[in-house]
Amino acid sequence: MRSALLDVPGVTRVQASLETRDVVVTYDPRTTTVDSLVAVVNRTEAPVSNTWYNATVKVEPRPASTP
After folding, report:
1. Half-sphere exposure for 46 (CA within 13 Å, toward CB)
2. Number of domains in the chain
3. pLDDT tens, 24-33?
4. What range does the domain containing 21 cover?
């Protein structure tokens, strides 16, 4: 799943925790959306065969900062 998220344009960092089963994604909201990231996760098969990831948003994204 990490590599699938890193392939999304605008994603700059993916931190995954196997213990908590959480993933934190850093991305440019001008390039991609939360819905797009959730879709990528939901269609990614886990390393265990016939197991799929299921994404939920726990924290809403912060607005992009302006330079």
Report:
1. 10
2. 1
3. 888 898 999 9
4. 2-42
